[in-house]
Amino acid sequence: MEAKRTSCNLTKYVKVGEDRWQYCSAVRGKTGRVKQDLVVVNDRLEHHPEGYYALDWREDGKRRRLAVGKNAASAQQEQERRNTVLKARAIGLAVTEEPLATSLTVAEACEGFLAEIRVQRTPKTYKQYGTALAYFEDVCGSHRLIEVERRTLLDFRQFLAEEKKLSPRTIWTKMMVVEQMLKTHGRNGLLRRGDWPRYVERVPQAYTPEQLKSLFAMCGEKDFLLFQFFLGSGFREKEVQFLTWRDLGLEEHLARVTAKPECGFFPKTWEEREVLLPTHLVKNLRALRASADPDRPLVFPSQTGCVSYHFLERLKRTAWNTGLNCRMCRGKKNNDCRVGPHCKNWFLHKFRATYATNQLRAGTDIRTLQVWMGHKDLASTMRYLKAGHGKDLLEKVDAAFAVVAGIQIQDANRKTC
C-alpha cells in the first residue's frame, strides 16, 4: 500500500519571462526561515517581489494547491500548519481546519489567474476573462479568497442579472470563468447544479439560398470572393483574416488552418486542419492569385497589405445596400437596422453555420465534417443537424403524413357508411 505524503511544498508564483509566470521553489536561510521574495528559477536564485506564495501537496490521489499570500513568514506558518494536518490525517485522526487569515484577497487571486490566461489564451479570450473577473471584484474584491462561499457566487449571479442586465447565457459564461479561477486556487465545488442560470440553446442560424443570391448580386469583386470563401470553407473570422497563399493548395483544392506565432495567431483548438474547397471557389482563387501583389502573403489583406479587421462591417454594409436588413433590430443609440447597417441577422459566423448545414444536407459524413469544422467533440458538429432540414427530409415528412392521413380518412369514411 502506498504511503500517504505528510508534507507540502512552498512555492511562489512569479513572472519569469515577458508573458510567462510559473510556480518556483521558495528559498530558506541557514536557520530554516523562508527568505522574503527569493526563489529558485532554473537552478538560479532570483529576487521576485511580484506574485504570491502557494502550497502544493497531494491528497486523496489529487494534486492540491492553496494560495497563502505575499508574506514569506505567514506563508511558512501556514506550511507548518498544513504539514501538521497532513500528518494527523495520515494516522487516522480527524482534523477540523480553521479559516486561513493569510490567504489571498479575491483581487490578488484574479490578478494571478489572469496572468496565466494571458499566456495560455488569445487576447480576445484574455479580455473576456478580465471583464468577468472585474465584475466579480466589484462584488467581493476585498474579501479573502477563503471567505468566498456559495452565497457569494449567488450574489454575483444576482449582480450580473440586476445591475449589469446580462442575459442568462452571458451570466453562465462569466460564472464559469469565476469558477475556473476559484478552482485554480483550490476552491472547488461551491455551486450546486441548480445554482447555474438556465438558458435556451439556440438552433444555429443559416442563410437561405435567396438571401445569398441577393447578397452576392450586390457585392463588389473583392467582397464577392471574400464571402464566397467564408461560405465554401466554413472558416472562422480569424482563420480567414490570417489566411496566406501558402495555406492554399489550389492543385489539391485544399485550404489549411495553420498557426502563425509571429502574428500571434493560433487555431482555436490548437490543432491545424485541412478543408476541401469547391471547384468554382478554387477557380476564383486562382484568378485572384494571378492578379495579387506577390509581396503580400495574405489572401484577403487590407488596402495597406496588413490584416483586415473590417470583414463584418463590409458584410453589414452590403446587406444594408441590398435592402436585406430585417428592419426589426433595435439597438442602443443609432444602431437601428431600419436606418443603417446594423442588422443582427447578418454576421460572419452565419456563413460557417450555412456551410455545415449544407454539407450535412449534401450527405457529407458527420465525422469528416467535424474535422473540417475543427470541432473538438462531435456534439458541437451535431448541433447543425437540427438546422439541416432540406427538400429530401420534407418529402419524407410529407410521405409519412400522407400515410397517417390516409388511414384517418379511411376510418372516417367507414364510420360515415
Write structural notes for this entry.
The chain has helices at 72-90, 106-120, 123-140, 150-162, 168-184, 209-218, 221-233, 237-241, 279-291, 311-322, 349-361, 366-373, 378-382, 391-416; strands at residues 9-15, 21-28, 34-41, 44-47, 52-59, 62-67, 248-249, 254-257, 273-276. It is built from 14 helices and 9 strands. The model has no long low-confidence stretch (mean pLDDT 86). It has 4 domains: 9-90, no CATH class; 106-195, DNA polymerase, domain 1 (Orthogonal Bundle); 209-384, Intergrase catalytic core (hpI Integrase, Chain A, Orthogonal Bundle); 387-417. It is of the alpha+beta class and 417 residues long. Helix content is 45%, strand content 12%. Strand 1 and strand 2 (21-28) form a beta hairpin. The longest helix is centred in the C-terminal third of the chain and has 26 residues, at 391-416.
